[in-house]
Amino acid sequence: MPVLIPTPKMLISAGVVGAILVGGVAVAHTASAGRLNEESLRLKEVTRATPAPDSGVVSEPETDPNVVSRLMPGDPGEISEYWTKERLEDAQPMPIPEVSISILPN
Questions:
Q1: Helix locations, the chain, DSSP H
Q2: Residue 56: left (phi > 0), alpha (psi -120 to 50), or beta?
Q3: d(CA 70, CA 62)
Q4: Of 13, 33, 37, 68, whose CB is crowded by the most CB atoms within 10 A?
Q5: Cα–Cα distance, 95 to 100 (Å, whole number)
Q6: Is the torsion defined by CA of 13, 15, 18, 20 positive or negative?
Q7: What is the DSSP letter of 65?
Q8: Where is this region: Disordered (predicted)?
Q9: Are 34 and 40 within 8 A, CB to CB?
Q10: pLDDT digits over 42-76, tens only?
Q11: SS3 readout for 49-85
């Protein structure tokens, strides 16, 4: 029967897991004892922002030159009828954009 010899990484991992476990038990014990109340949990006062008035005008989103299309043209039912099994088998994927980055030395 092989003997398991603990390595330093294994011992460090066990120590970290133990510390997390002890911390969780301490928090659970404190919470169950009722020592956590609203005053001890308050970190800072939070205020709500006033919402902007609704003008009813919807602005168009900015156009991104890298986006092919934002809205699907036509009826989705017609599009699904267009893509038959034969057309799907013959379809070619769109080319993947290539990015080149050159870093100049200082």
A1: 8-32, 38-41, 76-82, 85-90
A2: left
A3: 11
A4: 13
A5: 15
A6: negative
A7: T
A8: 48-78
A9: no
A10: 556 666 666 666 666 666 667 777 776 666 667 87
A11: CCCCCCCCCCCCCCCCCCCCCCCCCCCHHHHHHHCCH
Residue 74 Rama label (left phi>0; alpha psi -120 to 50; beta): left
Q: How far is CA 10 from CA 4, 16, 18, 20, 70, in A?
A: 11, 10, 12, 15, 51
Tokens of 77: 């039912």
Type of residue at 103: I
Nearest to 65 by CA among 97, 91, 94, 92: 97
Residue that the structure tokens 């080319």 belong to = 95
Residue 13 has pLDDT above 60, yes or no: yes
Give the max Cα distance, the chain. 77
* Helix (H/G/I), strand (E/B), else coil: 90: helix
Residues 6+ away with beta carbon under 8 Å from 72: 79
